[in-house]
């Protein structure tokens, strides 16, 4: 395991490579990023947040790191294998054929967090979109690991409902069995990226790590997602309190609309809300008016509401 080095995000951010078990494509790593601004006295917070990104994405949300730091929690983010800082030239971007593969990424990262903050540290996972699905399934398998789970627009069901999943699953499953890395037709028109990038949007990020259109969706990966969605539909039993935040509305259209700047253009947020309550016995669902798919990248007033809702939930359930 390597040492902490300065990260591409600049002052206060450091990154550490986590070496994982090689797979059929060769060497595999994950990358742990931490926000550790200089302080007058060394601190070792007992509350820790680990963030997971979504599909075709990586961690670059510096404001999110500063928010959690201001609450008194140590903030870390994980670029999963074959994403972002962890992507290597010999790898198929974002590809796994079983979401349980990420158990190694998470458990290796959590070992570092415990070494940094002690075995008694309270750990919370925050996750976005596909990362939300990964985190929820992991939390189900590790019921005593987390103090809480915060989900930002988690991808908990295929667009179009479980009917679409049931119809498409057999064909995707067959293709995944015989040609798992076959790319499927792209349906990314680039509208989501348009809401984010300057001059239309506020954010800048690395186009190699967060490309438009997104990484090709491959049959084996999509089959793994469908299996995960089916598990959520059957109901999970995550004992930790869960906060699920999503936009108040979805706008998915083949044509650009200015309404897309105030909506989720990736997921059906009604499905997100319905599936969220099946994750465990204590689930809070909050809908954010004018929110984008990644609520942390919404307009400033929307982000203020987003962070205020997390603060409110923390006061009631956080770090219990």
Topology diagram in text:
Elements: E1 5-6, E2 13-23, E3 26-35, E4 47-52, H1 62-70, E5 74-79, H2 102-117, E6 122-128, H3 130-141, E7 148-152, H4 162-178, H5 191-196, H6 219-234, E8 242-247, H7 269-276, E9 283-288, H8 300-316
Parallel strand pairs: 4-5, 4-6, 6-7, 7-8, 8-9
Antiparallel strand pairs: 1-2, 2-3, 3-5
What does this structure look like?
- This protein is an alpha/beta fold and 320 residues long.
- It has one domain: Rossmann fold, CATH 3.40.50.1820.
- It has eight helices and nine strands.
- The protein has a nine-stranded mixed β-sheet, sandwiched between helices.
- Helix 3 crosses helix 6 and helix 4 runs antiparallel to helix 6.
- The longest helix has 17 residues.
- The two termini are 32 Å apart.
- About 2% of the residues have low confidence.
Structure in a nutshell:
The protein is 32% helix and 18% strand. With 320 residues, the chain is an alpha/beta fold.
């Amino acid at each position: 395991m390597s040492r902490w080095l300065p990260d591409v995000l600049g002052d206060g951010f450091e990154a550490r490579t986590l070496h994982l078990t090689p797979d059929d494509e060769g060497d595999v790593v994950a990358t742990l990023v931490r926000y550790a601004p200089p302080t007058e006295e060394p601190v070792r917070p007992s509350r820790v947040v680990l963030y997971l990104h979504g599909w075709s994405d990586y961690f670059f949300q510096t404001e999110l790191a500063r928010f959690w730091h201001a609450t008194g929690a140590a903030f870390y983010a994980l670029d999963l294998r074959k994403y972002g800082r962890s992507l290597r030239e010999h790898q198929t971007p974002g590809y796994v054929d079983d979401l349980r593969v990420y158990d190694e990424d998470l458990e290796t990262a959590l070992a570092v967090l415990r070494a940094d903050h002690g075995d008694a540290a309270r750990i919370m996972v925050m996750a976005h979109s596909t990362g939300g699905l990964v985190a929820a399934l992991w939390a189900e398998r590790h019921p005593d690991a987390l103090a809480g789970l915060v989900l930002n627009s988690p991808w908990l069901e295929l667009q179009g409902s479980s009917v679409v999943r049931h119809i498409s699953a057999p064909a995707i499953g067959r293709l995944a069995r015989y040609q798992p890395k076959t790319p499927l037709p792209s349906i990314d028109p680039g509208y989501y990226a348009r809401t984010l990038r300057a001059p239309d949007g506020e954010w800048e990020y690395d186009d190699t790590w967060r490309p438009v259109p997104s990484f090709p969706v491959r049959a084996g990966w999509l089959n793994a997602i469908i299996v995960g969605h089916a598990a959520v539909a059957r109901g999970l039993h995550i004992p930790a309190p869960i906060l699920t935040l999503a936009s108040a509305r979805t706008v998915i259209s083949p044509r650009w609309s200015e309404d897309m700047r105030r909506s989720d253009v990736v997921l059906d947020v009604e499905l997100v809300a319905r599936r969220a309550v099946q994750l465990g016995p204590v689930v809070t669902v909050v809908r954010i008016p004018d929110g984008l798919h990644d609520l942390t990248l919404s307009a400033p007033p929307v982000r203020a509401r987003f962070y205020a809702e997390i603060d409110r939930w923390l006061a009631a359930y956080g770090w219990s």
